[in-house]
Design a protein that fits this description.
Elements (H helix, E strand, L loop, with lengths): L1 H24 L5 H31 L2 H41 L4 H85 L1
Helix pairs in contact: 1-2, 1-3, 1-4, 2-3
Length: 194
């Protein structure tokens, strides 16, 4: 089950990276290219929602003792999805503003320069956000590895503790057997002397 979850997780990471890149391109495009890009992003967002649903179903199948780790990952993916949808909405608003300006014939240079500057700033912010998200995902993956390593270490310590108890019991039995052999030897020696 967890392998299915991890497969969905990888698909989700690839898909969200593509969506982030495309969202950054939406304000820079014009005409049919922009409409096509908006349609593609909407389709990919729907795919990402479906992946989240699949991952949610996989988490429900996981035993309760392991479910917490996966639940926290799901919360972060849902937050990421909400952020992507908000970014897409903002990029579409910019798209709507451009269409309105085209229809009204508002093509003043100062507005256009401001719009270009805003687009550049937005693209820069989206790039920084994407870098932060990648770093967050790496940190999350590192944290998960640390948690899993800790769990494995805990299991190993428990196994070693059980083995120690078995060895101590075996040593105690050996001592008892040694004592019994000594008694038997003395009895046999006594019987031989008679």
């Amino acid at each position: 089950m967890s392998s299915d979850f991890e497969s969905y997780e990888q698909d989700f990471a690839v898909l969200t990276a593509e969506i982030t890149g495309r969202i950054g391109k939406v304000p820079k495009l014009v005409g049919d290219e922009k409409k096509q890009m908006v349609a593609n992003v909407e389709k990919q967002l729907e795919e990402a929602r479906e992946l989240l649903e699949q991952m949610e179903l996989e988490v429900r199948e996981i035993p309760p003792q392991s479910r917490g780790m996966y639940s926290s990952r799901m919360r972060s993916y849902k937050q990421e999805m909400g952020k992507l949808e908000a970014d897409f909405k903002r990029s579409r608003i910019a798209y709507s503003d451009e269409v309105r300006n085209e229809l009204l014939g508002d093509d003043g240079n100062s507005s256009e320069n401001q719009l270009i500057k805003l687009r550049e700033e937005r693209a820069h912010l989206l790039d920084n956000t994407e870098r932060l998200e990648r770093s967050s995902r790496r940190l999350e993956a590192g944290y998960q590895i640390a948690v899993e390593t800790e769990q494995i270490g805990q299991e190993m310590l428990e196994n070693l503790s059980h083995d120690r108890e078995k060895i101590q019991r075996a040593r105690e039995r050996l001592r008892e057997t040694d004592v019994n052999l000594g008694k038997s030897s003395r009895i046999l020696t006594g019987m031989l002397r008679r």
